[in-house]
Amino acid sequence: MGNLAAKLRRQKQKRRGSMQTQRTSNNSKNGDGQSKAIPRQAEHSSTTFKQTNKNTRIQNTAMGNLAAKLRTKGKPGRSASIKTHRSSKSGNDQQSENTFKLLLLGAGESGKTTILKQMRFLHGEPLSSKELEKFKSVIRSNVITAIRKLMGLLSLLGLEGELSDNEKEAFMHLTEEFSNLEVRATLNVHENIMLEHWQAIQTLWSSEVMMHVWLQRAACNVIDGHKLFLDNISRIASTDYSPTSGDILLARERTYKEKRRIHHVDGANFEFYDVGGQRGARREWIKSFNRNVDAVIFVVALSEYDQMLNENRRTNRMVESIELFKSVCNNAAFANKPVMLFLNKKDVFADKIVSSDIGAQPPFRDYTGRPGNFDDGVEYFVKKFMDCLFNPENHERFVHVTNATDPSNMLFVLNSTRWIVMRENIESSFGRGVF
Q1: What does the alpha-carbon distance between residue 269 and residue 14 come to, in Å, rounded to a whole number?
Q2: How many whole angstroms separate alpha carbon 387 and alpha carbon 330?
Q3: Could you tell me the pTM of the whole model?
Q4: Of 23, 246, 285, 343, which is most buried by a Cβ count within 10 Å?
């Protein structure tokens, strides 16, 4: 660590001397006593990312190039460099300097909270019995929400007559039960209904008619991952049910207020801020913008290119995400901050594009890629997001194609994010070229 500290100090002194010489030279040339700004060059030495433009890097997280590069560079060296740089701090100052703040932004149901859950499973403490009980109620409530949306779509499509007598009886029974359900019923109310009527739900869900409805689920905005809950309804309804980690990752509970989570990884504190993504919750974003974060993680659900907002049925969800990304990336609060774009739910996207053509969606009729092709679809949407940058030279953008419910995929992505943030933090202090 001492050798590294000495090396960093020499580089810093050398850089200062070079900058001073440049300033002196510029002053003598200008003759007006003002020095020219020294342009800060973007670093392009990483072999991990496919270059799409000067300051954008796309990472296919199925590849392990970054992990290999980090092993070559040496993780201990990077960790030590941060500790060396901050060795002059003590007490609370040192703890504060060793904390990296990351802000999670994105539209509703993009997967921001799922990323935090995965981070906890990978680096945090186990869930308490109280938390497990709450997730049990949330998951059972999610079952009710999913089947209600699908039943509404079934009726809209006029398919009640296609149900068998047994299935029709289950449909009518559930329709009557749900008609008495308040719009904002509590989790416990939903849970009790699910436990009482799960067999009728299972009968209806197992019908061929419902499978046809499921293929058109984009029209009712049912959450794709909740198919697992409907497929496993007997397990979820059992008296000894305990949610698995997979269940918890898929559980959907709306975020209303900012959530703060701290995880300790390799001697550093990573402080995550998660805020609600629905339109009504975005007024709270301004508080997070003022936190002077070290990096922004903007999460987008790739699979929502053919869905509309719950808040406005005329607005495409992907279009909404692109506009949000534009406003976030070009906000002065994040100037010279690394912004990581997480194109999430790649597994759902891969399944959906087979039957739902990107080019058939009104906002994306300019799509010229191969129908049903994953790589073409991803490249198209990456370009859509990058095209909305007013100043591409402002700072680097990193793009990750992710599946937040896949532990191995997210472990790789989160480790990549961790080293990117640490690298950017060191280079902001010592200048480019340290790594």
Answers
A1: 31
A2: 12
A3: 0.74
A4: 343
Residue 360, classed as helix, strand or coil, is helix
- Decide: 134 and 279 in contact? Cβ < 8 Å: no
Distance in angstroms (rounded) separating the CA atoms of residues 69 and 47: 8
Q: What share of the chain is helix, strand, coil (3-state, %, to 5)?
A: 55, 10, 30
The structure tokens listed for 187 are 């989790």
Structure tokens at 183: 């719009």
Beta bridge partners of 58: 50, 399
Helix (H) or strand (E) holding 343: strand 339-344
Segment holding 20, helix H or strand E: helix 2-30
Q: Is 221 left (phi over 0), alpha (psi -120 to 50) or beta?
A: left
User: Whole-angstrom Cα distance, residue 85 to residue 422?
Assistant: 12
Distance CA 21, CA 34 (A): 14
8 A C-beta contact, residue 364 and residue 387? no
- pLDDT tens per residue, the chain (435 residues)? 444 444 444 544 554 454 444 444 444 444 444 333 323 333 322 223 333 444 455 554 433 333 333 333 333 333 322 222 233 334 444 445 678 888 888 888 898 889 999 989 988 889 999 999 999 999 999 999 999 999 999 999 999 999 999 999 999 999 999 988 876 678 889 999 999 999 999 999 999 999 999 999 999 999 999 999 999 999 999 999 999 999 999 999 887 777 888 888 878 888 898 887 666 665 666 666 667 888 889 999 999 999 999 888 899 999 999 999 998 888 888 877 888 899 999 999 999 999 999 999 999 999 999 999 999 999 999 999 988 876 655 445 688 899 999 988 888 877 777 787 777 777 766 665 555
Tokens at 270, concatenated:
């990573």
Calpha distance 201→135 (Å, rounded): 20
Distance CA 123, CA 108 (A): 25
Rounded CA separation 401/306 (Å): 18
